[in-house]
């Protein structure tokens, strides 16, 4: 997943600055929206036991599984393995 604000702005036919201004006017930030999407997708992928956690990390654009694990713990308070085992 390689979504960047530049790519999203181009898809929306806006300048990056305009997109940032519009998000700011709504009280949002691109990184917060991106993190929310990654969290939701991670939760979805972790309920599919056939997909290894390392593959979930790659699918979500993390360079290392350890970076995904840290992010997931920050988002949910749990480690991905513990979340998967409970699901």
TrEMBL record:
- Protein keywords: DNA-binding, Transcription, Transcription regulation
Which Pfam families does the record associate with it? HTH_18
Which Gene3D superfamilies does the entry link to?
Homeodomain-like
Task: Spell out the InterPro entries in the cross-references.
Answer: Homeodomain-like_sf, HTH_AraC, Tscrpt_reg_AraC-type_HTH
Q: Extract the SUPFAM superfamilies matched here.
A: Homeodomain-like (SSF46689)
Indicate the secretion signal residues: none
Is the DNA-binding keyword given for this protein?
A: yes
What is the top-level taxon of the source organism? Bacteria
Span of domain HTH araC/xylS-type: 1-86
Protein's name according to its UniProt entry: Helix-turn-helix domain-containing protein
Source organism per entry reads: Azorhizophilus paspali
